[in-house]
Amino acid sequence: MTILELNHRKIVFPNGLTLLILRNERLPLLTVSFYLRAGKDSNPMRLPGLSSLCIRLLDEGTANYRGDQISRLLEGQGASLSAFSRSEVSGLWLEMKKGEEALGLELLSEMVRSPLFPPAAVKKERSRLINHVEALSDEPETVGSQRLNFHIYKGSPLAYPLLGTEKSLNSITRDHLKAFHRRHFRPDNAFLVIVGDVAEDQVVGQALEWFGSWQPAGPEGKRPAIRFRKQTGPIDDCIEMEKEQVSLYLGHLGIRRSNPDYYCLQVLDTVLGGGPGFTSRIPARLRDDLGLVYVAYSDIAGSAGAHPGRFVAYAATSPERIEAARAALLEEIRRIRDEKVGGEELDTAKDFLTGNYVFELQSNSSLSRLLLGIEVFALGDDHLACYPHYIGKIGAEDLQRVARKYLDTLNYTMVRVGPQPPSQTVTS
Amino acid sequence: MLWYRVGSIWEIPEKTGISHLLEHMMFKGSEKFPKGRIDHLTTRLGGYNNAFTSKDYTAYYFGFASDRWLPMLQLEADRMSAASLDPAEFELEKQVVLEELYMDRDSPWTALREHVEWHFFKEHPYRYPIIGLADDVARLSVEDLRDHYRTFYGPANAALVVVGDFEKKKTIETIKRCFGPIQPGPIPVLQIKPEPMRHSCLQLELQVPSHVARLMIAFPAPPVSRDDQFAIHLLSKILAEGKLCRLYDRLVEQEELASLVSVELNETQHPYVFLIRLELTRKGRPQVVQAILADELRRLACEDVSEQELTRAQNQAISHYLAGLESGFDQAAGIGLLEILDRLDLVEEYPARILAVTSDEIRRVATDYITLERAVVGFVPRGLNGIG
Question: Given the DSSP bridges, would you call strands B202-205 and B376-380 parallel, antiparallel or unpaired?
Answer without folding.
Answer: parallel
